[in-house]
Amino acid sequence: LALSKQAHLLKSMSLSAGAARLAGLCEAIELGGKAGRADILERIPDITQLATATCDTMGQRLSTRLAARAV
Description:
The chain is mostly helical. 82% of the residues lie in helices and 0% in strands. It is built from three helices and no strands. α1 packs antiparallel against α2 and α2 runs antiparallel to α3.
C-alpha cells in the first residue's frame, strides 16, 4: 500500500505539471499496488526513467524560456 500511496502522490504532481505520460504510468502502478499485484514492482525502473526524462525536458524548456526573456 505504501507504493500505491507514493504513486498517487507522484501522479497528482505530474498532472499538475502537465506530464500526462508520467501520470498515466503512476496511475497504473497505483492501481496495481492497490490490487496487490507483485508484478507492478517491475515497472519501478520505467517510472524512474520517465520521471528523469520528464524533469530533464521541463528543465530544458524552462531554460529556453528564461534565455528568450533575457534577450
